[in-house]
Design a protein that fits this description.
- By secondary structure, the protein is α+β, with helices and mostly antiparallel strands.
- It folds into two domains: about 150 residues, Jelly Rolls (Sandwich); about 120 residues, Homeodomain-like (Arc Repressor Mutant, subunit A).
- The chain has eleven helices and eleven strands.
- The strands form two sheets. It has a six-stranded antiparallel sheet. The protein has a five-stranded antiparallel sheet with strand order 6-5-8-3-11.
- It is globular, with a radius of gyration of 19 Å.
Length: about 280
């Protein structure tokens, strides 16, 4: 594999795992830049490292050299991913508020952190990593990981939370107190459920999901009309969009777009890995 080549394979799991996991991915090769900033996605991610160590840092800035397997909790700020050499890893992207059923821990314990999977699953984490690493083909690795995750399902989805979160994150967002009154739960109970099953309190969920929609809506090949984008995604105005963008992404919208175009070039399209911001150093 060439020094600048990078292979990424995405796999959609079948039912019933698909209700909990959006996709599994397999990545191998070298990125063409120093590291990635990964902006908030509203989703937890599990990573099995099959190659050289990777330095990570969650939104809290807790930098660590990851050698085996780890979990990226829900992030309310940018995290960092820096391969020390080539990347070889398999990842699991959980659906919003579904990771707890597989991981077996309250999601707020992982918020803004990158945690060694050993600390969550114990010896089972390394057993999974080794089992996946023994497979000779990408398809076999994905198949083994999918079967393993299916066996770990420990709880059904929290059905009442689905509708509440869709309404909460609409445009414009619903009032949390009004939503609680409609579904018949106390404000405190709803906050507790969001923290446990999503990883963030309701107002933070609204902010993160609004950023996720905004990132997906930015067209890199068209001069942005930030005021129109702000209105479409539920911000009060353009300054509100810029403030929220900087708070959650650590960049202005213009900086975000410029960095991505500088590395990915004219082939970059709207919705193409919008949470990844390449960082070139040295």
């Amino acid at each position: 594999m060439g020094a600048s080549s990078f292979s990424f394979v995405a796999h959609r799991p079948s039912a019933p795992l698909a209700e909990y996991v959006e996709l599994l991915w397999h990545a191998e090769g070298r990125i063409g830049h120093t590291r990635d900033l990964i902006l908030p996605t509203g989703q937890a991610v599990l990573v099995l490292n099959l190659g050289e160590p990777i330095r990570t840092a969650g939104a809290r800035g807790d930098s660590a050299l990851q050698r085996r397997a780890w979990v990226c909790g829900i992030q309310a700020g940018p995290m960092s991913n820096e391969p020390r050499a080539g990347t070889h890893a398999l990842g699991v992207v959980f659906r919003p508020h579904r990771a707890h059923a597989v991981l077996g821990v309250p999601l707020h314990e992982l918020t803004d952190r990158v945690v060694a999977l050993d600390d969550v699953w114990g010896a089972a984490a390394e057993q999974l990593r080794q089992r996946v690493g023994e497979q000779r083909s990408i398809r076999a690795r994905l198949r083994v990981a999918e079967a393993w995750l299916l066996r770990r399902l420990a709880a059904p989805p929290v059905r009442g939370l689905d509708l509440a979160l869709r309404q909460l994150c609409g445009v414009p967002p619903r009032s949390v107190r009004q939503l609680c009154a409609e579904v018949g739960v106390s404000h405190k109970h709803f906050i507790d459920r969001c923290r446990r099953f999503v990883g963030l309190p309701p107002q933070q969920v609204i902010r993160v999901q609004r950023l996720v929609r905004t990132l997906a809506a930015i067209d890199p090949q068209t001069p942005p009309r930030w005021a129109e984008l702000a209105a479409a995604q539920g911000y009060c105005d353009q300054p509100h969009l810029v403030r929220e963008f900087r708070r959650l992404a650590g960049l202005t919208p213009s900086d975000y777009l410029a960095r991505r175009l500088a590395v990915f070039g004219p082939e970059l399209r709207a919705g193409q890995d919008p949470s990844f911001v390449p960082v070139v150093e040295g």
